[in-house]
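User: Predict the full complex structure for these chains.
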Amino acid sequence: MILRAHKIIRHLGVKRNKNINNIIPRCYSTSSGSGQENTANQTTNKPSKLKIPSVGTNEKKASIKTESKPTLDYEKDKDEDEAKNSDNTKDNKEGSRKLKKKIKKILRDPYTYIIPAILSIGVAAYFYDFDKKPKGQLAKLGTVSTTGVPLIGGSFTLVDTKGRPVTDSEFRGKHLLLYFGFTNCPDICPEELKKMAGVLRSLSPEHKTKIIPLFITLDPYRDSCEAVEEYLQEFHPDFLGLTGTPGQIKETTKKFRVYYYYPEKFDDDDYLVDHSMYIYLMGPMGHLKDYFERSLTTNQVLKRVQACLDE
Amino acid sequence: MNNSQRKLCWKLRDLLYKCQEKNDEDNSKCTQELEELYKSCPISWVKRYENRREFLLKRGKETRFIPEEEEKE
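Assistant: Here is the predicted structure of the two-chain assembly.
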C-alpha cells in the first residue's frame, strides 16, 4: 500500500529522469521457465547470449549435470526440477535484492514522507491538550471557571482618604490585598480586616514592600474620607482606604463582581449593607491572582499570599 | 460611630454570645446583656447579634466568634 501511495505521489509531482539502465525488461529476466540456456547470465543485467558452460564454476553445475549425463526421463524431470528450484532460490535472492533496492529508493525519495508526516501531525493534534488550564494558584479557584483567568478587576477611579482622586494605575507593579466593606459593619468586615492585618504583620519586610492593603467602601453615603481613615487606624497603619461617589463605587464593584445590597428603606442613618465577603489578591498587572473566603484562617491566607508574592 | 463605640459594642456582643452559649440560645435568660446592647449600639447591630448564633446553627455552620481578647496574639 505504501508503494502504491508512493507511486501516486510521484505521478502527481515533478517529472523525473528515468534511468533506463536500472529498468530490467521482463523478456530478459531469469524466470524459472527459461531453463538451462540462461543460467549463465543470472548475475548480469544485459541481454543474454548463448555461452558454452565452462567446467569448475558453481553456478553452472546444474547445466553441466543435465548436459553431460545420459538420464532417464523421470530423472531428467527431477534434474530439471532441481534446476528450477535452484533457479527459484536464485530468483528469490535476486528478487529480494531488487526489493531491497526498491525500498532504498523509496526511502531516499522525499515524497514518501508526506503521508506519514500528515498522519503524525494528525495524531499529535488529537492527543495535544488544546484547552490549557492555568497552573499554580489559579488552579485552586474552585467555583471560578478553569478555562482561563477569571475576568475580575479592571480600571477604576476612586477617592482616597485625603480627598485625592486615585486610579488603579497607581498600584501597578505591586500586589493588592483588597477588601470591599463598610465602616458600619457589625462583625464580618472587622474580622476580615483583622485577618488582613494579621497577614501583613506576619509578612517579611521584603514581602511587605510588594503588597498594599486596600479597603474600598460600599457605603459612600455614610463613609466619608475621614470616617474611612479613622476606621482603618484600628487595624493597621499601612491600610489604604478608598471611597468615592455612588457612581464610582458602582462602576468599581461591577468590575470586581462584588455583590452588595442596600435595604429598601434607608432613610435614617442606621442600616446594614449586605455584601460579598471575599478578600482579593490582585497581581502587579492588575489581574486577579487569588481570593480568600471567610472560612479561611489568618495562617491559611498568609501562606497563599506568600506563595503568590514569591512567584 | 467612632472606634471606641464600636469596640464597646463588640465587647457587649461577646458577652451576649457567651450567655447564649450557656443557655442554649435562649434569649429570655440574657435580657441584661441585650438591654446593654440596646443602650450603646445601633439597633441594626443588636438585631443582627440577637439571632446570629441561631441563624448559623440552623445553616449548619460553626457558630464561631472570635472575642476581642483572644484575637490579640
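The mean pLDDT of chain B is 81.
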